[in-house]
């Protein structure tokens, strides 16, 4: 091992190094072709868990007295179905399952934030990996991938509801009017509206998860100086436990809320796309 | 030595900027949540039977209001630990 790797394996030299180490992805490749292996692995794993959970419920489903798991799945499915039905007035046989997948998958990915901070690193260390970021949605790649997919769904519903020609006509004539002088302003406004949706969707989820993870790291740094045995460092160690607990409880709310908001906005954007002007 | 002074200047200004980003964002988010929360409480007091519906909408709005602030915090944290403005100095 080189000297730098020796130093890294011996532990961080200062707090900035600790944080930047925890913020580094396990990357394969360079530049544009770099892949964040940890993000890809965790998101695929949690996707399989999501599908597996609901599939196992459907396998054992009974019309008699439901088991606890089946009752829980029914509650979730009914909640999503009611939410979609309130807003979206076309055939929801595609959108409601999409909303359910988004909600449960994003919730599980966000929930990885609640794992102890150094635990994934220790487990990855057993496999010889130096970095492992365990929250896929704290990586902008994941959130943008999902929001660009949502953009594709929105465009699909726009074309489906208004026809390709109708949709292009609307891009150039709404909201100001069909005078040819207004075509450029109309188009610019519609383009901004269309592009701001995936960007805000992705950045909202990314910002929430990234900032939350970072605050966990900053709280963890409080307890770092325990073995210097000063008054401040001892307070810091026990303060770290208390503050970490408070922040984790707050994060439980934010995790659920952000998953719900992502799902809700997907449904609302799709519903807006099918409205005629 | 000249280089060190320049790096220190960039870092100092970055620190001030981070404080402004987080502080001003927090002001906006908190005032927004306050206004929304007060309207919710008024409506709940006026029509208690609407509380479940309004509560769902309220949480949705809370997430949307916090969005810009948290994006600002994420950006500020990025500048705190991997300041791209220092790339000029190598």
Structure description:
- The complex is a heterodimer of chains A (277) and B (90).
- With 277 residues, chain A is an all-alpha fold.
- Chain A has one domain.
- Chain A contains 10 helices and 2 strands.
- Chain A has helices at residues 3-9, 15-22, 37-59, 68-87, 95-111, 119-126, 140-162, 164-173, 183-222, 231-273; strands spanning 27-28, 35-36.
- A two-stranded antiparallel sheet of chain A has the order 1-2.
- In chain A, α5 packs antiparallel against α10 (231-273) and α7 runs antiparallel to α9 (183-222).
- Chain A is globular.
- Chain B is mainly alpha-helical and 90 residues long.
- In chain B, 84% of the residues lie in helices and 0% in strands.
- The longest helix of chain B has 45 residues, at 2-46.
- Chain A binds chain B through residues 16, 19-20, 23, 200, 203-204, 206-208, 210-211, 214, 257-258, 260-261, 264, and chain B through 59-60, 62-64, 66-67, 70-75, 77, 81-82.
How are the SSEs ordered, and which strands pair?
The complex is a heterodimer of chains A (277) and B (90).
Chain A: H1 3-9, H2 15-22, E1 27-28, E2 35-36, H3 37-59, H4 68-87, H5 95-111, H6 119-126, H7 140-162, H8 164-173, H9 183-222, H10 231-273
Antiparallel strand pairs in A: 1-2
Chain B: H1 2-46, H2 51-81
Helix pairs in contact in B: 1-2
CATH fold-level label of the domain at 28-81 in chain B: F1FO ATP Synthase
CATH architectural label of the domain at 28-81 in chain B: Up-down Bundle
Provide the domain count of chain A.
1
End-to-end CA span of chain A: 65 Å
Name the structural class of chain A: mainly alpha
Question: How many runs of DSSP E, i.e. beta strands of chain A?
Answer: 2
- Terminus-to-terminus distance of chain B: 15 Å
Give the oligomeric state. heterodimer
The helix fraction of chain B, in percent, is over 70%
Give the overall shape of chain B: rod-shaped
The largest interface is: A-B, 18 and 16 residues
* Helical stretch tally of chain B: 2
Average pLDDT number of chain A: 88
CATH superfamily membership of the domain at 28-81 in chain B, which one? Answer: F1F0 ATP synthase subunit C
What is the level 1 CATH name of the domain at 28-81 in chain B?
Mainly Alpha
Per DSSP, what share of the residues of chain A sits in E-state strands of 2 or more residues?
under 5%
Biggest beta-sheet profile of chain B: none
């Amino acid at each position: 091992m080189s000297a730098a790797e020796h130093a890294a394996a011996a532990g961080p030299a200062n707090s900035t190094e600790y944080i930047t180490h925890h913020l580094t992805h396990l990357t394969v490749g360079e530049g544009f072709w770099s892949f964040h292996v940890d993000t890809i692995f965790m998101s695929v794993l949690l996707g399989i868990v999501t599908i597996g959970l609901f599939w196992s419920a459907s396998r054992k489903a009974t019309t008699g007295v439901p088991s606890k798991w089946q009752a829980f799945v029914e509650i979730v499915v009914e909640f999503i179905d009611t939410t979609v039905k309130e807003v979206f007035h076309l055939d929801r046989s595609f959108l409601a399952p999409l909303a359910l997948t988004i909600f449960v998958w994003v919730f599980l990915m966000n929930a990885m934030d609640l794992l102890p901070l150094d635990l994934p690193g220790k487990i990855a260390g057993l496999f010889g990996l130096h970095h492992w970021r365990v929250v896929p949605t704290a990586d902008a790649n994941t959130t943008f991938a999902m929001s660009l997919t949502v953009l594709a769904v929105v465009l699909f519903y726009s074309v489906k509801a208004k026809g390709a020609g109708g949709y292009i006509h609307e891009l150039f004539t709404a909201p100001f009017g069909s005078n040819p002088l207004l075509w450029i302003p109309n188009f610019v406004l519609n383009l901004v509206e269309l592009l701001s949706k995936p960007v805000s969707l992705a950045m909202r989820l990314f910002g929430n998860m990234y900032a939350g993870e970072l605050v966990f790291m900053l709280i963890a740094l409080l307890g770092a100086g325990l073995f210097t045995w000063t008054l401040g460092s001892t307070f810091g160690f026990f303060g770290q436990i208390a503050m970490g607990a408070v922040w984790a409880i707050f994060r439980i709310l934010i995790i659920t809320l952000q998953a719900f908001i992502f799902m809700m906005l997907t449904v609302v954007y799709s519903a807006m796309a099918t409205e005629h002007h | 030595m000249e280089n060190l002074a320049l790096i220190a200047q960039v870092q100092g200004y970055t620190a001030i900027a981070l404080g402004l980003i987080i502080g001003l964002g927090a002001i906006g988010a908190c005032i927004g949540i306050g206004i929304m929360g007060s309207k919710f409480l008024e409506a709940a007091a006026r029509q208690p039977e609407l509380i479940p519906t309004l509560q769902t909408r309220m949480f949705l709005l809370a997430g949307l209001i916090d969005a810009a602030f948290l994006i600002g915090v994420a950006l500020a944290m990025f500048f705190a630990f991997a300041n791209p403005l220092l790339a000029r100095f190598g």
